[in-house]
């Protein structure tokens, strides 16, 4: 049950009381499960930001937040996802390098676990985004510049005002991309030390 105040929906006192009472009756294990599920849902919603689908993001969140290796059947049961979807997502996450396969002695099943180091995880995700998105753009810029060169167009056509303006815009974009790549290599490749230093400096600069 909800009431509305100034156009915004809020929980009524009765609903809030009922929710609080329900939480008090949960066992510690059930409370932990509920907290983990909340994190998994939010991480899944964020998946699109770093270029993966919701299922992959939720599986990664599950492996990260539980902090232990899980087999495919455990992932399927916890997230209620089909075997094919889980298999495909686990394979893709392994390709990204943010989860790893492991085995238990005497078992044929594969287990999967997330990286535990946040900085390492961020570095891998950023590197993959760069490879998939930034590198193709930079390659396209270079291709366009080559197509606008005197060798391709001839001297007279290359000096045309529109051609010259386009080359200038492309050169500016290439310079920006080059600087961005240097920043990436400086801080993200060595994420734990590099980005940590940047964060400390920024925090000190804030009021």
Notes on the structure:
There is one protein chain. By secondary structure, this protein is mostly helical. It has 2 domains: 2-114, Arc Repressor Mutant, subunit A, CATH 1.10.10; 118-205. It has 10 helices and 5 strands. The strands form 2 sheets. The chain has a 3-stranded antiparallel β-sheet with strand order 3-5-4. It has a two-stranded antiparallel sheet with strand order 1-2. Helix 2 packs antiparallel against helix 3 and helix 4 packs across helix 5. The protein is elongated.
**Biggest beta sheet attributes:** 3 strands, antiparallel
Give the name of the CATH architecture of the largest domain: Orthogonal Bundle
How many separate helices? 10
Helical percentage: over 70%
Output the structural class.
Answer: mainly alpha
Radius of gyration: 25 Å
CATH top level label of the largest domain: Mainly Alpha
Indicate the mean pLDDT.
82
CATH-assigned homologous superfamily of the largest domain:
Winged helix-like DNA-binding domain superfamily/Winged helix DNA-binding domain
What is the number of beta strands?
Answer: 5
Strand sequence of the main sheet, in spatial order? 3-5-4
Distance between the termini: 42 Å
Strand content: 5-15%
Order of helices and strands: EEHHHEHHEEHHHHH
Key descriptive features of the protein:
mainly alpha, disordered N terminus, elongated, Arc Repressor Mutant, subunit A, 10 helices, 71% helix, 5 strands, 207 residues, 2 domains, three-stranded antiparallel sheet
């Amino acid at each position: 049950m909800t009431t509305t105040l100034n156009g915004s929906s809020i929980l009524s006192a009765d609903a809030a009381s009922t929710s609080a009472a329900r939480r008090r009756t949960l066992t510690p294990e059930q409370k932990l499960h509920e907290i983990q599920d909340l994190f998994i849902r939010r991480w899944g919603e964020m998946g699109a930001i770093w270029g993966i689908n919701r299922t992959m993001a939720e599986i990664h969140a599950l492996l990260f937040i539980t902090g232990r290796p899980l087999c495919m059947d455990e992932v399927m049961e916890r997230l209620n996802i089909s075997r094919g979807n889980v298999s495909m997502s686990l394979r893709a996450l392994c390709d990204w390098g943010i989860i790893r396969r492991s085995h238990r002695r005497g078992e044929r099943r594969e287990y999967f676990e997330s990286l535990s180091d946040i900085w390492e995880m961020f570095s891998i995700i950023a590197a993959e985004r760069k490879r998939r998105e930034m590198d193709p753009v930079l390659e396209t810029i270079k291709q366009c510049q080559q197509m606008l060169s005197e060798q391709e167009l001839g001297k007279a056509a290359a000096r045309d005002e529109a051609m010259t303006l386009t080359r200038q815009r492309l050169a500016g974009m290439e310079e920006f991309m080059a600087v961005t790549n240097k920043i990436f290599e400086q801080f993200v490749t060595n994420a734990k030390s590099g980005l940590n230093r940047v964060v400390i400096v920024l925090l000190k600069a804030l009021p």
